[in-house]
Amino acid sequence: MKRVCAWCNKDMGILLAGGQSKNLITHGICEECANNIFTKIGLKSESFLDDLAAPVLVVDETGRTLLANRLARVLLKKNLQDTELYNIGDMFECAHAALPEGCGKTIHCGRCTIRSSVMDTFESGESKLEVKAYLHRGKSDNSEKIDLSVSTEKINGVVLLRIDEIGDK
Question: What confidence tens digit (pLDDT) does each residue in 110-168 have?
């Protein structure tokens, strides 16, 4: 699948889809356009994220969320202050994140598709598209398995984690 910048149409390379996609072209934002939007136009990142038509989390290199747009906060039932500096697993209420070791440090975290997609995007710079994943949500002794699909893109030293599909929503 070809990836282009939605703002300037710059070719951003080929993106391998994790799931079946009907689109032959997908859009992202190149680093130059991201810089222009946030600095020259003076648009605040919160406003930019809230205008996106999908739930998106901004994640740092440690797996902590820096921001979540309005759609992500509604979907995950979080307040704005609940989204800052929480681990990805805490945002999704992963049952394993609630263990004493915490998100990213349990035996289960090595197999976490969400976390590994984000971390791989940090390391390689390569985006992931519609990666199928699951998590056990709730308490470890009473959790519900949730199927989801996520995409990642690295921009300006952070990774945007888009929730493409979650459960039956």
Answer: 888 999 999 999 999 888 999 999 988 887 677 888 899 999 998 878 899 999 988 75
Which amino acid belongs to residue 123? Answer: E
* Long-range pairs of 47-51 with CB within 8 A, sequence gap ≥ 24: none
Report angle CA 90, 58, 40 to the nearest 5 degrees.
160
Strand partners, 148: 133, 166
Q: What is the pTM for the complete model shown?
A: 0.74
Query: For residue 44, what are the contacts with CB-CB under 8 A and spacing of at least 6?
Result: 38
Which CA distances in Å does 118 have to 44, 110, 135, 144, 164? 23, 12, 15, 23, 14
The CA distance from 150 to 120, in Å, is: 13
Is the distance from CB of 113 to CB of 133 less than 8 angstroms?
A: yes
Per the structure, the complete domain to which residue 42 belongs is given by 2-166
Q: State the Cα–Cα distance between residues 15 and 8, nearest whole angstrom.
A: 18
Instruction: Copy the structure tokens of residue 133.
Output: 């994943």
| Residues 40-60: tens digit of each pLDDT | 545 456 677 888 889 999 999
- CATH for 127: 3.30.450.20
Tokens read off for 71: 């759609």
The DSSP output letter for 94 is: B
